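#struct-queue
[09:14] JT: dropping the first one here, sequence first, then the structure tokens:
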Amino acid sequence: MSKNTLLQEKAAAYDKNNAIKHEVNITLGRLKEFRQKFTFAENLASIEWLDADKLYKVNPDEVGEFFQFIEKNLNIQGTPIQNNSNLYRNTRLQIKEFRNLLRTTVDDRKSLAQKVDAPWERLGGMSQDKFLAKKIIYCFNYEKGHVLPVFANQHMRHFVNRVVGVAAVQTKYLSLGQEYEHYTTELLNAKNSLPLTKDWDNLYFARFLYATYPPPDTEPIGVNVQSERKIGNAVSNEQLELQGFMRLLGDLQKQGKISGEQFRENRQLWMQQPSEREALIQRLKRLLTN
């Protein structure tokens, strides 16, 4: 059976009672309200007026409404769960840098790859895979139809493998953003190739992907919410980062650019010096392309 036929069958069997579609419509309605409050895409000057308290409040410490929305509405079941309190606090402290990143986020002249590859790592606490950056990019570009709310490159790779095929899974891109854009394009092409899924909202399609092809790095856990038993998925962000780093080291070793001893030394550096991980990765990526 072809991948396309299998996708068609699974899509036809998905969400028969439209319960997920109802949830997605509610989320999209909230997203529109969020965009009405934060009109950065429509009014670039409003970025300069962004109040630091909208990001993170102090005395007492409290997450501002900008990130409250993202926390409550963009944690799709199966996506990595993170504690971003320090990162939110740092966006307040580095609000000038954050405003510049927002300008890139809403710039239609920038590609998805360029938006992801913008210097988000300058915000202290941003993960290597830039989960939060991708969520923000989604919020301010979702209506254009070219972004997909799957925020881990590893999950993107898994879905492309299952939906499109191994031949479409590329791993040796120069940047995180180029890889992310490639996987996004592959998945949206697959979605738009079928009459049944073509008109699905991308958020609904992402819910379908996580329900139908759960990534192997997620595991079910019980979560008590308001005395009800709910099932969620959790994955260690550090585990995702380490897996990506090990693939990079493996590629370098296969090409003869590092020895086995250097492989072990770099792995040890990654484990022992978390604050230097981004610089280490960029250095190794440059070595890979030279």
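[09:21] JT: and here's the second one, same format:
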Amino acid sequence: MENPPTQQTNFSQMEEDYEASAYAVPDGVFVVDREGRIISFTEAAERILGRTYEDVVGRFCEDVFEAEWCEAIRRTVETEEVLSNLNVGISTPDGAPISLCGSIAPLKDVKGQTVGAVVTFRDVGEMKRLMDTLCEWSVQIALERDKLDAILNSITDGVFTIGEDWRVLSFNRAAERITGTSADQAIGMHCRDIFRSDACLEACPLKRTLDTGEPLYDVEIGIVAGDGTKIPVSVSTALLYNVDGAVIGGVATFRDLSRVKELAKALEGRYSFHNLIGKSKPMQELYDLLENVAESDSTVLIQGESGTGKELVARAIHYNGPRKDHPFLGVNCAALPEPLLESELFGHEKGAFTGAIRQKPGRFERADGGTLFLDEVAEMSPVLQAKLLRVLDQRSFERVGGTETIRTDVRIIAATNRNLMQAVENGTFRQDLFYRLNVVSIVLPPLSERREDILLLVDHFIRTFNAKTDKAIRGVSREAMRALMDYAWPGNVRELENAIEHAFVQCAGGMLSVEHLPRNLRPEHAMVDAVLDRKDPLLQNEKALLQRVLQNVEGHRGKAAETLGISRPTLWRKMKKHGLL
């Protein structure tokens, strides 16, 4: 007796929905039987491995893939052991190496008997590329429904599909495990009632895909599991098609990032120290030094180029030491004229000078018990150098216009971007003060000497500006990262931070590209920047470069400065240095 037409139609539709969801999964999947013969090979597997369905299906695993992989598959078939996070290196038919991360699970029939194994994998080096063609599938699936069910349930990432009414159509076992919601409960529910994410209200990745028709990759959101646990997940989405190519809903894969976040936090602990970021040898040595310096009460002199993070180091010392519960105050000695700086440091009595209408405590008083950070200390006048020396020697001072001696318990951390020893030799800085400040010397490396830290710093700034701007920038394109790595960074970490902020202003979302970077960082200016970098061995070519550029723009200094990616005052100084004015 034939099934009623309506029942047949419903069953056919379920088959189409199910097949579509299986083949929309972005990971490569293939299936072998108990004898090791490949019986299924998805389109994603074809893309990743460079082998066609016709070339692979029906052949034994050993005839196609490396022995290491086939042995792992045989182990799963024989022992029913699930193998996860396997790192396997294979070669494409043309000999190109591919690094894969995969999982192997036993394939069982409806009676629970192991009839083969399901292998899921992804290209570690090209994970972004994995999903670029998610919506271009046109494969005619030939597997039975039970086999497809086994494949979906063997995938370690959560997978679910929705119809146009946002009701869940399918929900695999990994989705059950991550969310704590069974497939029986999930199917038919509105997806927001399962995931309970803040993104469901305004920034749903699946809604964006359905609205724009564009797939999304690795969007990080937070969901709430059935027991109330908050779980970070990475979501990728695509349109869901039926066999006729019509959109019938959406498919999403999601991965639990809890462990990844834990590892990232552990790595961040190894590669950072109180807002200082870096894994390079100079930075690791700096972290070790700072831990010891923070525990002491010695005066510290920090030397380094502008933008290397001298104040961050000073704060790290203070907030990791015994004075952390007391004030940390800083003053830029180059920003104020001598009378104002003297009053700022030591305070003044009422009537000490015109405008002194009341008594004012200085930084030494207000920082009592804590730390006083003297930035650009080399710019202090000889008079103030003498007064600072007295404070260091006697731990006391008088306010401007006062006679009362005030005791102070302050740790001094000084910083400069100048060579203080050279200043001593030139007679612009007191030798005795230099030695009193230079009890513990810290020299910060320029960014050009720790380029391996640029990637960490870029990731840190992207997270920072994503939080500030409420954007979802995923990262930096290869070309942009190459430009960042090739640049000389005369302004060090501060210049890098400003460059990323500039790129954020230019970029609406997605990836930061070369076009979003400041103009002087782009590849066409790379050689110019290298020649103009004062530390570059090509410095002797600077005059010739300036002459050539000025000749090309017929002496127009504004155009020359723009071409060189420098300001007009900088161009003027360089022209004066080389006698080109």
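[09:30] RK: nice, looked through the second one.
[09:31] RK: Residues 5-23 form the longest helix (19 residues).
[09:31] JT: good to know. The longest strand covers residues 97-108.
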